[in-house]
Each structure stands twice: as structure tokens, then as C-alpha cells.
Write a structure and sequence with these properties.
3 helices; single chain; mainly alpha; 87 residues
Length: 87
């Protein structure tokens, strides 16, 4: 068994991380709050056997390419890759 995760050599080292306050980006802060509220509501719904959350089993927002506030994410969102087989 093996797991292959291709990353360009030197790509990660070229990134310069920064720490910033979420409040510096109000739109992103709103998305984060919407996600947190949605996630908390979903998890609370899992306690009710008749809830939508139990029927859905998981939220799937990222999988569907939908932002937490309900708007569509990037047009190039992909949930599956079509990789070449081993030769």
C-alpha cells in the first residue's frame, strides 16, 4: 500500500505564511460565522432521528462547491479527479 501526493519540489518552501485577524476581512469573517452556525445547527440536528441532518448524514457543502452562506463557490470547483492509470 502507498499513498502518492504529488507536490512540486520547492513549492511549499516558497510560501510565506502570515498571521492576520479574521476581522480584517469582514466578508471572510461572515463566511466563517455562517459556516460555524450552519455546522452547529447540523450537529444539533443529528440528535433528532427525524431531522434533515440525520437523513443527509453529512453536510456536503464543500463537496458540492457551495459556500456556507449559500452562494456558489468557484466555477472551477471539482470534487473528483480523473487521473491517469498506472502504466
Amino acid at each position: 500500500m502507498c499513498h502518492i501526493f504529488p507536490v512540486s519540489r520547492g513549492g511549499l518552501e516558497a510560501v510565506t505564511p502570515e498571521m492576520r485577524k479574521l476581522s480584517e476581512n469582514p466578508e471572510l469573517e461572515g463566511e466563517c460565522k455562517a459556516w460555524s452556525d450552519s455546522r452547529n445547527s447540523f450537529n444539533k440536528g443529528l440528535n433528532d432521528p427525524n431531522s434533515d441532518a440525520v437523513r443527509e448524514k453529512w453536510q456536503k457543502l464543500y463537496f458540492r462547491g457551495v459556500c456556507p452562506a449559500g452562494r456558489n463557490g468557484p466555477e472551477d470547483h471539482r470534487s473528483r479527479l480523473k487521473l491517469k492509470p498506472f502504466g
